[in-house]
Amino acid sequence: MCTAIPSRVLSIDGDMARVECFGVERSVSLMLMNEPVAIGDFLTIQAGTFAVERVPEEFAREALAYFAQAIDDAETNTVLTPSS
């Protein structure tokens, strides 16, 4: 199973985009995208360099908040429990 963390599009140059996630920027290919991509969109990235899906901003921000909490909890050795 692969967990994809949404990355925000910073710039687009042809079939490549510059994306950012948790302060880390990288270039990804847009060749597998089946819909238009715009600056500010959130994308899921597979195999490290291929964008495969655009996700709604609300979902992306919710997922990023969850991952940020998970990282913070891991750093403080706190066990995550599902919310009711």
TrEMBL record:
InterPro entries (alphabetical): Hydrogenase_HupF/HypC
Domain of life: Bacteria
Transmembrane segments: none
One Gene Ontology molecular-function label: iron ion binding
GO BP: protein maturation
NCBIfam families linked: hypC_hupF
The family this protein is said to belong to: Belongs to the HupF/HypC family.
Name listed for the protein in its UniProt record: HypC/HybG/HupF family hydrogenase formation chaperone
Organism of provenance: Telmatospirillum siberiense
